[in-house]
Amino acid sequence: MVSIHLQVKMGRNIIISLFILLSSCGVNKSKPNQSILSAIKDTTKFAFWNVENLFDTINGATFDDDFTPEGYNHWDSARYAKKIFNLSFAINQINADVLGLCEVENRQVLEDLKSTCESLKNHGIIHYESPDERGIDVALYYNALQFEAVSSQPIQVNLADNDKTRDILRVILRSKYTKDTLAVFVNHWPSRRGGLIASNPNRFKAARILRAALDKTKHPFIIMGDLNDGPSDSSVAHILGSCNPSAEKKSCSSYDLAATVNSDKEGSHCYRGNWNMLDHIILSPNLINGSSKTQYEQNSFGLFKPDYLIQQFGKYKGYPARALAGGRFLDGYSDHLPVQCTLIHK
Fold first, then answer.
1. Cα(222)–Cα(65) distance, rounded to whole angstroms?
2. Is 212 helix (H, G, I), strand (E, B) or coil?
3. Average pLDDT of the residues of the chain
4. In this structure, what DSSP letter does residue 336 have?
5. Secondary structure (DSSP) of 34-58
6. Which residues lie closer than 8 Å to 32 by C-beta, 6 or more apart?
7. Are 128 and 151 in contact (CB under 8 A)?
């Protein structure tokens, strides 16, 4: 079941008093309903996960032939159902109020995941079809008992030579209790295919488009996504202007929680034995420095990495446990690990 935290502080006393007043007046003699209780949570858990090729089995208009029963991956209903089940198991344990995903094919796979996942039963879905040639998109689940989605839009990333990639998803969430707003940006930047130097301009373009959107944003913001670059790479550190939260720089445009991870030892993705911190949660300065009613809970950022998300044997022991590799079904999850953090509402 969805975990309901009632860590009631002084700022919530008025709500408790209201419940007592309503009860004593005979307006509501029953227990407060679940939606009211959920709306007064003092914390919100955010998470992001690249779920690696969450495709249905239907041959669509995009290049998804490999993910059909007759295709390279022999992607039939049984394999699809097991992938959904495995992802649901992990997502239930993450139990996030706001969850960003990437590498999802369409709205239907998001609905299938929600119908299987108990922790998502009260969540709304924000999704747009992107122009990506592989047909993979980004999406956001949000706890609809706690938030309302005020607005949402896909921000297109136009690359050179008319190359297609994923949109950046922008969602404005408003707390149903505090009425505070938060801008959430879900990203999946272009890959490193063709080599780092050759592919850098594509991620630089995505970073500039995101930075322009941030500069127009009046709300506290949280960026989440697979950026295909690490915290110290130019797209993140220079174009976005994101710093390690422990940095004392005054010129930081945002703070990258992923920068706190020692990628020499761990990361969200492993390639040729080397860990990389490709998956980020980045916060606006006012979520760090105390100038907003909503604040980052210190040391709450981290990788979600239970043993079952890690390959336990074979050539790739220690890597994230994948669902597929080389056309073989491995009964795993994803080649990326989820990242998560908590915000506190004062």
1. 35
2. helix
3. 88
4. B
5. HHHHHHT-SEEEEEEEEEEEE--SS
6. 19
7. no
> From CA 288, how far away is CA 49, in angstroms rounded?
23
Q: What are the Cα distances from residue 174, in Å, to 142, 145, 265?
A: 11, 11, 38
Q: pTM higher than 0.85, yes or no?
A: yes
- As to burial, measured by CB atoms within 10 angstroms (0-12 exposed, 13-18 middle, 19+ buried), residue 173 is buried
The pair phi, psi for residue 93, each rounded to 5°, is -75, -35
Beta strands in the chain (DSSP E): 43-54, 98-104, 123-127, 137-143, 147-155, 168-175, 181-188, 221-226, 242-243, 254-256, 269-271, 274-276, 279-283, 294-296, 302-303, 324-325, 328-329, 339-345
| Dist. CA 242–CA 277, nearest whole Å | 14
- Domains of the chain with CATH codes: 1-40 (no CATH), 44-345 (3.60.10.10)
To which residue do tokens 């922790």 refer?
119
Q: pLDDT (tens digit, 9 = 90+) per residue, 115-147?
A: 999 999 999 999 999 999 889 999 999 999 999
| Cα separation, 123 vs 200, whole angstroms | 36
pLDDT in tens, 185-212: 999 999 998 899 999 999 999 999 999 9
Scanning the structure block, which residue is given the tokens 């690249």? 50
- Contact between 227 and 235 (Cβ < 8 Å): yes
Residue with tokens 């609809």: 144
Cβ-Cβ contacts under 8 Å for 16 (sequence gap 6 or more): 8
Residue 238 to residues 185, 209, 211: CA-CA distances in angstroms? 18, 14, 11
- Residues 74, 117: Cα–Cα separation, whole Å: 25
Angle at 184 between CA 187 and CA 100, to 5 degrees: 55
Backbone angle region of 266, left / alpha / beta, with phi > 0 → left and psi within -120 to 50 → alpha:
beta
Asked if 102 contacts 188 with a C-beta cutoff of 8 angstroms, the reply is: yes
